[in-house]
Amino acid sequence: MFELSSIAHASGHSVARGSSAGRPAAGSHLWLVVLGAGLALSLGCSPSTRGPDPSLGEGIFNPRPARPAVQQAESLPDTRVRHLLTYPTRLALGADSSLYVSDARQGSVFVLDPRQRITREISGIPRPLGVVVGPDGTIFVGSGVEQAVRVYDPAGGLLRKIGAGLLLMPNHLALDGAGRLYVADSAANRIQVFEATGALLKTVEGTLSDGTEMRFPVAVAVREAGGAHGGAATELLVADQGGGRVLVLDEQGLLLRQLGERASAFHAAQVGQLARLQSIALGPGGLLHVLDSQLGRVQVFDVETGEVVRSYGELGTAVGRLLLPLDIVISGTGDAVVANAGNGRLERLLSPAAARPGRRP
User: Fold this and answer.
1) Where are the domains positioned within the chain?
2) What is the reported pLDDT for 345?
3) By CB atoms within 10 Å of each CB, which of 170, 252, 264, 269 scores lowest?
4) Mean pLDDT for each consecutive 10-residue tract of the chain (361 residues)?
5) pLDDT for the residue numbered 277
6) b or e along 174-212 (b: 16 or more beta carbons within 10 Å of the residue's beta carbon)?
7) Measured torsion, CA atoms of residues 307, 274, 235, 133, in degrees rounded to the nearest 10
8) pTM (two decimals)
9) C-beta contacts of 199-207 below 8 A and 24+ residues apart
10) Does domain 5-71+79-354 bear CATH number 3.30.70.890?
11) Rounded to 5 degrees, what angle do the CA atoms 289, 234, 90 make?
């Protein structure tokens, strides 16, 4: 859970960047900005300092380092924070509410604790893409260069690789309740399903029951609940970027229904239309948050009916606005955290339920 109480005294409206980027440290901190309306937090990440940074602007909260600079034992993986988070690419939430952020440019996965402090960095990953964390803390990270999924133990030690020789672009990952790994293999136009041990279970690809094909699936989610449409116990939700829609499939890959449609033009995108579908995230109440990277907007769909119940987010560079957002996760409180890659930061959008239904971009 991301707690707002820890930054209650922050009241600034602009981001001031510090000068501590070159200082080595074991922990990290975030500069947090609260908008006047209280609707968004901007999280710009850098290594932490050993005390107040005089370059931080008024109203910016500068938390203490997550831990002291202690040399790690050689038997443990080195997960000290050494780099800046510059290009947040994909996101995942851990069972303890930690946030995992892949950075395709830095070649790392950064781990933020529930107080929004960077506590660890798993580095040396060739172009990390999708990331997901199991209930036991096992970390799965897709590598665009290795064309495989790396599996790490909770401490950040590499255990094995999954899908080598079978995957082209492990762009987004998901786990189901049985621990099966779902990989949105975008460049191969398919979803691949693996056992946690690495054995390939099945592949979803080819022509769908409506005669269309999946084209560049960029994200996948698993919904384990019976529904009114088809009564499937498990539904596979696929962000089909090429088709401008979210596919709802059963376990065998049969198309049950679809959510949204492609916008005919950027300026003419209406409610329920998607200009550039980028990611999806299941939230409370059976709602699906659908991220549009071109519009800088999130539309919230009822998975059962396909109705858009609300939307939030705006295109731009100011704090609280989105530029080339690449991923989204929903916390236990219903708040959205967005990988705001074009602005080089994370964005936390508070209480999206307050957004107006059917609002145009």
Assistant:
1) 5-71+79-354
2) 96
3) 252
4) 28 31 37 34 42 25 35 66 94 96 98 92 98 97 98 97 97 96 98 95 91 95 69 86 96 93 76 95 93 95 95 93 97 90 93 50 40
5) 97
6) bbbeeebbbbbbbebbbbbbbebebeeeeebbeebeeee
7) -120
8) 0.79
9) 200/163, 200/166, 202/253, 204/236, 204/238, 204/249, 204/253
10) no
11) 40
Length reported for the chain: 361
User: What residue type is 256 in one-letter code?
Assistant: L
The span from the CA of 122 to the CA of 68, in Å, is 18
In the numeric block, which tokens belong to residue 199?
Answer: 């054995």
**CA-derived radius of gyration, the chain:** 20
Euclidean distance between CA atoms 138 and 103, whole angstroms: 19
- Residue 6 is predicted with a pLDDT of 27
Residue 229 confidence (pLDDT): 47
